[in-house]
């Protein structure tokens, strides 16, 4: 068992790259287009690839079926809810898979132990990118910025449909909402379309909103959330606070509070982010949260937070209270924060 654990963890990067291979070969799209369970030879001919490689493809599929990414019946391979997320005419989560399996990532992660020995606060990302922060690189290199925004949009697609369906009462009584750090607008568009009476605004850095989705359903404002956030009676912060350390989160939350207060109507901040719960019986969810935590530590020098850490930054920013919704959106929780 102990040996298996170490062997499994040593090889687990292969899971990431097997998934990446399935994305690059668009296996989900091919099974969808086939319209019924797809035999191996049909899948292979659709790629197309030399017939002598069919057994290689079969072995790749055996792993991915075992992991639950694809299903299999006597008649062939099938989509599962997981592989449906990869469909390019659906959530297109393949963009997210590509972001995390970039060729440079492996070289960078190889240097993680060096960061522990360094003095100072340089993150793994800064160490492997000439001291630059991730946001600087995304601004300076439009191709990286586009890849990142596309990945965030695909993640938004997969989270937001469930959010508006399962948490619609969060929007009761609201008349305006600003999605702060909303990227190119996937989330705010889904909210605006689900709640047409709500005046929605996308707010992100100017060079990010330049590439915002074109839509009449929301306004677009470029700016810096550390300076001023446009007024509204709901501020939406999805996957933003985990990018920042506690002091910066308190600064952002204080700016959100100013924006709520200047809209006169009270309101709330709606946060979607991970709440780490080591007691959760879903061990896959706990492990995924912890993997995100190491990722945030290494990219931004930030973190995923447990209940106590959320409590501390929320009350530290002067809010009167908060409620963690009994809803899980993948590994993400929904936190309603009251001024
Ligand atoms: C992890 S992404 C999340 C994007 C989006 N909320 C989502 O869930 O897909 C964080 C976002 O924060 C934005 N951001 C970073 N610094 C910012 C700042 N100072 N002011 C406004 N937005 C900022 C980034 O451009 C990026 O779009």
Automatic annotation (TrEMBL):
<dbReference type="GO" id="GO:0032259">
    <property type="term" value="P:methylation"/>
</dbReference>
<dbReference type="InterPro" id="IPR016461">
    <property type="entry name" value="COMT-like"/>
</dbReference>
<dbReference type="GO" id="GO:0008171">
    <property type="term" value="F:O-methyltransferase activity"/>
</dbReference>
<dbReference type="InterPro" id="IPR036388">
    <property type="entry name" value="WH-like_DNA-bd_sf"/>
</dbReference>
<keyword id="KW-0808">Transferase</keyword>
<dbReference type="Pfam" id="PF00891">
    <property type="entry name" value="Methyltransf_2"/>
</dbReference>
<feature type="domain" description="O-methyltransferase dimerisation">
    <location>
        <begin position="9"/>
        <end position="89"/>
    </location>
</feature>
<feature type="domain" description="O-methyltransferase C-terminal">
    <location>
        <begin position="109"/>
        <end position="320"/>
    </location>
</feature>
<keyword id="KW-0949">S-adenosyl-L-methionine</keyword>
<dbReference type="InterPro" id="IPR012967">
    <property type="entry name" value="COMT_dimerisation"/>
</dbReference>
<dbReference type="InterPro" id="IPR036390">
    <property type="entry name" value="WH_DNA-bd_sf"/>
</dbReference>
<feature type="active site" description="Proton acceptor">
    <location>
        <position position="242"/>
    </location>
</feature>
<dbReference type="GO" id="GO:0046983">
    <property type="term" value="F:protein dimerization activity"/>
</dbReference>
<dbReference type="GO" id="GO:0008757">
    <property type="term" value="F:S-adenosylmethionine-dependent methyltransferase activity"/>
</dbReference>
<protein>
    <recommendedName>
        <fullName>O-methyltransferase</fullName>
    </recommendedName>
</protein>
<dbReference type="InterPro" id="IPR001077">
    <property type="entry name" value="COMT_C"/>
</dbReference>
<dbReference type="Pfam" id="PF08100">
    <property type="entry name" value="Dimerisation"/>
</dbReference>
<keyword id="KW-0489">Methyltransferase</keyword>
<dbReference type="InterPro" id="IPR029063">
    <property type="entry name" value="SAM-dependent_MTases_sf"/>
</dbReference>
């Amino acid at each position: 068992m102990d040996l298996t654990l170490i062997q499994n963890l040593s090889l687990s990067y292969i899971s990431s790259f097997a998934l990446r291979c399935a994305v690059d070969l668009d296996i989900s799209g091919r099974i969808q287009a086939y319209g019924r369970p797809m035999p191996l030879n049909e899948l292979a001919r659709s790629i197309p690839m030399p017939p002598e490689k069919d057994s290689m493809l079969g072995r790749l599929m055996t792993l991915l079926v075992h992991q639950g990414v694809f299903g299999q019946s006597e008649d062939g391979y099938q989509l599962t809810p997981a592989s449906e997320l990869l469909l390019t005419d659906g959530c297109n989560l393949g963009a997210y898979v590509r972001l995390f399996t970039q060729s440079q990532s492996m070289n960078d992660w190889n240097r993680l132990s060096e960061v522990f020995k360094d003095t100072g606060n340089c993150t793994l990302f800064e160490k492997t990118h000439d001291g630059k922060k991730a946001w600087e690189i995304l601004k300076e290199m439009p191709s990286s910025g586009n890849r990142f925004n596309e990945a965030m949009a695909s993640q938004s697609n997969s989270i937001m449909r469930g959010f508006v369906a399962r948490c619609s009462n969060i929007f009761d009584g609201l008349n305006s909402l600003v999605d702060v750090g909303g990227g190119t607008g996937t989330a705010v568009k889904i909210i605006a379309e689900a709640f047409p009476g709500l005046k929605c605004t996308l707010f992100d850095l100017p060079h990010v909103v330049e590439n915002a989705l074109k839509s009449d359903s929301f306004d677009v404002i470029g700016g810096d959330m550390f300076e001023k956030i446009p007024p509204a009676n709901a501020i939406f912060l999805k996957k933003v606070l985990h990018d920042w350390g506690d002091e910066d989160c308190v600064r952002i939350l204080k700016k959100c509070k100013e924006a709520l207060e200047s809209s006169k109507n009270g309101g709330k901040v709606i946060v979607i982010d991970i709440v780490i719960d080591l007691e959760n019986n879903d061990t896959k969810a706990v492990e995924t949260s912890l993997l995100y935590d190491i990722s945030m530590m290494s990219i931004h020098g930030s973190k995923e937070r447990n209940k106590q850490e959320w409590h501390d930054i929320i009350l530290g920013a002067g809010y009167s209270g908060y409620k963690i919704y009994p809803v899980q959106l993948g590994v993400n929780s929904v936190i309603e924060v009251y001024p």
